[in-house]
Amino acid sequence: MNRMSPEAEFLLLCVQPTDASHGSPQAAARNAQDLVDACLDFDALFELAGRHRLRSLLSRRIDDMEIHSIPHGAHTALWTWSVRVESHATGYADELARTLEAFESAAIPALPYKGPVLAQSLFGDVGLREFSDLDILVRADDAVRAAEILVANGYVASAPNLARLMRSSAEYHAEYVHATKGIGIELHWKTDSRFPVEEAFAQPWWKRHHREPFGESSVRAITASELLLVLCVHGSKHHWSSLAWLVDVAQLMCGRNAADFESLIEIARRFGCERRFALGLRLAQRLLNAPLPHAAQQWLASQGEAIEPLCSRLSQHLLAREAVEVSVFDRLRLDLHLCDRVRDRISHTAGVLLRPTGEDEHAAGGSVPIASALRIARLLRRYAA
User: Fold this and answer.
1) Cβ 358 vs Cβ 164: under 8 Å
2) For residues 89 and 86, what is the distance between their CA atoms, to the nearest angstrom?
3) Which of 215, 327, 347, 361 registers the highest number of CB atoms within 10 A of its CB?
4) How many helices (H) and strands (E) does the chain have?
5) How far apart are CA 92 and CA 97, in angstroms?
6) How far apart, in whole angstroms, are the C-alpha atoms of residue 63 and residue 259?
7) CB neighbours (10 Å) of residue 211?
């Protein structure tokens, strides 16, 4: 990887896990202070942290690490942003609690993940993880009833025909926005269209989750190990365009033992997402000093030839001074490289070309052949451009 900018190096030092069992927080603080003393470009730092939704966490860590000589204007800007994020997060957390209560009253089991629940779990503070919507997973059989409850509580669907959307194998969630509050909810019936992690674990998956404290109540919680695989699949799908997602992964890697990783590696191998899992772990280890037990490091080394070129390239993209635009062709190449098997590459290519989305089916009035034709026409226009 090319030499990173001082601003990127400072940001990584500040947002890496603080678990003293895998490194020295004091050394990280000293290195961060040295970078400040060498005259950081704080405008560039603010822009980079903002692009990755890490300004609030950066502000807290600067205070926790007792880093001095931060310009007053930069410190004030970060503090002002963190106050805004905390207010936003608190409002979303309250809305999540109300929504889950409505689902529970209708006997609909619901699992919130990411958003304020993940912020509380990882950092002990909902205001330290920036997010734009709420992700709630329900059983496919309950999705229509859950959607009706959302609509009854003031939410508007982006795609009105949920049943049609659920018939598309390319879709796994529907978006809803509150008409007056502007709060967005992604209602999931799968964690992912191609790699629904909940199907990879021992059944009955929905009956074995514990509850965690959240606000004045408690919520159903996905286990940390399961969530680690979910987040790695999600991040790889979006080619790790946000450093905040890697911060989540790095925090979750802390405290996981060898047995956790061995179990997840086996599931990822069986499920066909081994490279995706390995890429997330390797990026978190490389950029954020995330801990891994020896056996997991050996497995990661065996994946090196497949993932190291991607790791280097995506690291450069993440830490560039300006956001890097990735072409449609490059996205397809990245996706194909992340496929574990040849048959997966063939299936993925066929899916990209032929599998209509819910938007395609809606435009085609529910006709699958017409929707497939629209899909091909849309891709031809997109690739031609």
Assistant:
1) yes
2) 5
3) 361
4) 18, 7
5) 9
6) 36
7) 10
CB 101 within 8 A of CB 153: no
Residue recorded with tokens 């207010």: 87
* Local structure of residue 124 (DSSP, 8 states): S
Q: Could you identify the residue written with the tokens 């997966």?
A: 344
**DSSP-derived 3-state class of residue 238:** coil
CATH topology of domain 87-222: Beta Polymerase; domain 2 (3.30.460)
Tokens of 69: 């000589």
Quote the CA–CA distance of 40 and 59 in Å, as a whole number. Answer: 15
Give the pLDDT of the chain (385 residues) as one tens digit per residue: 567 899 999 999 999 998 644 557 788 899 999 999 998 999 999 999 999 999 999 999 999 999 999 999 999 999 999 999 999 999 999 999 999 999 999 999 999 999 999 999 999 999 999 999 999 999 999 999 999 999 999 999 987 788 888 888 888 999 999 999 999 999 999 999 889 988 877 666 777 778 888 888 889 888 888 899 999 999 999 999 999 999 999 999 998 888 889 999 999 999 899 999 999 999 999 999 999 999 899 999 999 888 999 999 999 999 988 888 877 778 888 888 898 888 888 887 777 666 666 666 666 666 666 766 777 777 677 666 5
- CA distances (Å), origin 133, targets 22, 89, 137, 164: 32, 10, 13, 23
Which residue carries 């509150």 as its tokens? 178
The single-letter code of the amino acid at 245 is W
CA-angle at 31, arms to 30 and 34, nearest 5°: 90
Structural tokens at position 26:
């004091």
Q: Residue 94 corresponds to which tokens in the numbers above? A: 């309250």
Domain boundaries, the chain: 1-70, 87-222, 223-322
State the helix-helix crossing angle for 42-51 and 55-64, rounded to 10 degrees: 120
CA atoms within a 13 Å half-sphere pointing along the CA-CB vector of 169: 11
The first and second tokens of residue 366, run together, are: 């529910």
Separation CA 17–CA 22 (nearest Å):
9
Contacts of 101 (CB under 8 A, 6+ apart): 217
The pair of structure tokens assigned to 328 is 């449609």
Return the structure tokens found at 139. 């059983």
pTM confidence score: 0.89
